[in-house]
Structures are given as structure tokens and as C-alpha cells.
UniProtKB/TrEMBL annotation:
Residues 9-221 form the AB hydrolase-1 domain. This is Alpha/beta hydrolase. It comes from the Bacteria. Keywords: Hydrolase. InterPro entries: AB_hydrolase_1, AB_hydrolase_fold, Sec-Metab_Biosynth_Hydrolase.
């Protein structure tokens, strides 16, 4: 196999989960010769998660593809301005513009869109309703795996949802976007609208919001395309 144009990949997870969910994608990329780093962003504040991502980018030995799932898309939209970032890949992710936050992007959902089962905040943190987690977040995963994700939720800080992007990296760097067509957390029409606005190269794949776990081949393939095209 010829060497990709960019061989470093940095993966950023979203809300309610941690970086371990990237392992299926990590395994496929490392098997094909990529050097992959996973950011364990705390999801307490957007600024903090951007800084955690920058720390990992600082450690790269060359240009990198920066990948974000869900809320991780907001993180990479800001952190992607790092000089080592060659391209951005959004996986069923938010892609805010300047001055936007996750809160502003979810304020006006498409008509008839499913409502994510987010429980009222407690002490500044959010959880998904455990009983509704599978159907909303992980509908195409085995029941036991979805239950594990529900029971290992990471509290998502309200402040992270309100953090605004100052300089969206997708305005100056190439981007790719995977739309999860069965997503019940971020409606597919919203994903399509964001991917169109960013000017991303788009693929659509049947899968839930947890598509990075359920369809790792498709996710890894898009990251490889970004690496080859950067």
C-alpha cells in the first residue's frame, strides 16, 4: 500500500461518551499504518476541550487529520486552526460557524425531528435517560453494548454546549463529513445543512448516532480519503 499523504490522525469524541468508543476505528487505521491519537476531552467546557485537543496536536510529528464525532465537531471546528491540522473530518457532528455553539445549533430543530432524551441538568451536568439511550444514541448496536454505553455515560457540562466557536477552521481548511442517515440525536437534515455550509466532501451511511462504533469501516474509509486528499 502506498503511504498516505497524511499519516497522523487525531480522534475527538462527543458528549456522554469517552474516547474508548473510537477503538474500532483506531484498530482499522493503525492496521493500515496510520499513527492514531485519541483525545480524552473532559466535556466540561468548549475551551477546555479545545485545549485538550491542542495538547495532543502539539505531540504530532507532522500534519494530522482531525476527526470529531457529535459535539467533537464543535471542538475540532476551533482546535482545527492548529498549524498541524491538514483537514477536518466530521462524523455525524456539529459544525458551528463563528459565534455559534451547540446550543444555537439545536435551538431550532427540523420539523418532526426526534427529541434527544436529555434529562434536566443537575449541578450543571447533563445525562441521557438510560431507558431511552439505546433507541436515541445507539439503535444499531447490540443491546448489551448499548446498555454499557448508557451505564458508562460521562456527565456533559452545560458550559460545553454554550461554548462558542471564535474562528471556524472549516472556513480555511478542507473538510469531509459523514451523515448518519438513521441518527436520532442530530437529525440527518441538520447534518446535511451543516455539511453543505462547510463545503465538505459528504458521504451518507445508514447508521445511528453511534456510527463510529457500528460502522467503523465506513468511518475509517472517510478518514483515509481525507488523508489522501490533503
Amino acid at each position: 500500500m502506498s503511504s498516505p499523504a497524511v499519516s497522523n490522525v487525531v480522534l475527538v469524541h462527543g458528549g456522554f461518551v469517552d474516547g474508548s468508543g473510537w477503538q474500532p476505528v483506531y484498530d482499522r487505521l493503525t492496521r493500515d499504518g496510520y499513527r492514531v491519537s485519541v483525545v480524552q476531552n473532559p466535556t466540561l467546557s468548549l475551551d477546555g476541550d479545545v485545549e485538550a485537543t491542542r495538547l495532543v496536536l502539539d505531540r504530532q510529528d507532522g500534519p494530522a487529520i482531525l476527526v470529531g464525532h457529535s459535539y467533537g465537531g464543535a471542538v475540532i471546528s476551533e482546535a482545527g486552526n492548529h498549524p498541524r491540522v491538514a483537514a477536518l473530518v466530521y462524523i455525524a457532528a456539529f459544525a458551528p460557524d463563528k459565534g455559534e455553539s451547540v446550543n444555537t445549533l439545536i435551538a431550532d430543530p427540523p420539523p418532526g425531528a426526534p427529541v434527544p432524551p436529555i434529562l434536566p441538568p443537575v449541578d450543571g451536568f447533563l445525562f441521557l435517560d438510560r431507558e431511552k439511550f439505546s433507541a436515541s444514541f445507539a439503535g444499531d448496536l447490540p443491546a448489551a453494548q448499548a446498555a454499557f454505553l448508557a451505564d458508562s455515560q460521562v456527565p456533559w457540562g452545560v458550559g460545553a454546549l454554550g461554548g462558542t466557536v471564535n474562528e471556524p477552521a472549516w472556513r480555511s481548511k478542507p473538510s469531509w463529513y459523514l451523515v448518519a442517515t438513521d441518527d436520532r440525536m442530530i437529525p440527518p437534515p441538520a447534518q446535511r445543512a451543516m455539511s453543505e455550509r462547510t463545503g465538505s466532501t459528504v458521504v451518507e451511511v445508514a447508521g445511528s448516532h453511534a456510527i463510529y462504533i457500528s460502522q467503523p469501516d465506513a468511518v475509517a474509509d472517510l478518514i483515509k480519503r481525507a488523508a489522501a486528499g490533503s
